[in-house]
Design brief:
Blueprint lengths: L2 E3 L4 H9 L2 E6 L9 E6 L3 E5 L2 E7 L5 H9 L1 E7 L7 E11 L1 H6 L12 E15 L15 H21 L14
Antiparallel strand pairs: 1-8, 2-3, 2-6, 4-5, 5-8, 6-7, 7-8
Length: 182
């Protein structure tokens, strides 16, 4: 059924690249606070090498993952197959929030298509890859990507996005700094 690996194999990378959606899970430190799971899609995930991955974090209604990663660096990324071959693949490790300026300077931002709604790059140093059967995941078909987030961000423009970050993404649900100070 399940297996554990110290790094990504070629078949893992191929699986990741074929998935139209992934999920990130994070939580604040300590026994209180909200556990967060966020779906991500579009052309926003990159395997940098066998032990490092990154995703382009797009502006959203909250900034829980950024706040949690800034606080404790814990992050899990999950991919699951909705196709005929069942599989769930999780990446466990320590993450960092990289500003767009720093991501541009070190070259990682160039690996993603431009997006006015981008607010950061989340990098994960993978310390464990785990697979499981995925038998409980339904077989589904991708109809299309939703264009609404891109349309919304483009209509706001870069100044409007910056204002939105200041108003809505400054702190997390648990009052941790998110975009504040980035």
């Amino acid at each position: 059924m399940g297996a554990s690996f110290p790094e990504l194999r070629d078949d893992h990378v191929a699986f990741i690249e074929a998935q139209p959606v992934f999920f990130v899970g994070s939580a604040p430190s300590g026994p209180d606070g909200h556990v967060n799971v966020s779906p991500k899609g579009g052309d926003t995930f990159r395997v940098l090498d066998r032990r490092n991955v990154a995703y382009l974090d797009l502006t959203g209604s909250g900034a829980e993952t950024i706040a949690h990663v800034r606080e404790n660096h814990r992050l899990t990324v999950m991919f699951c197959s909705f196709g005929e071959r069942p599989l769930v693949l999780r990446l466990f490790g320590r993450a960092d929030v990289v500003t767009l300026a720093d991501a541009a300077e070190d070259g990682v931002l160039a690996r993603f298509p431009p997006d006015v709604g981008a607010r950061a790059v989340i990098r994960l140093a993978v310390d464990e890859v785990r697979t499981s059967c995925g038998y409980g995941v339904p077989v589904m078909e991708l109809v299309e990507e939703r264009p609404r987030l891109t349309e919304w961000a483009e209509a706001k423009g870069s100044d409007g996005i910056a204002e939105y970050h200041a108003a809505k993404n400054r702190r997390s649900l648990d009052d941790l700094p998110a975009m504040e100070g980035l």
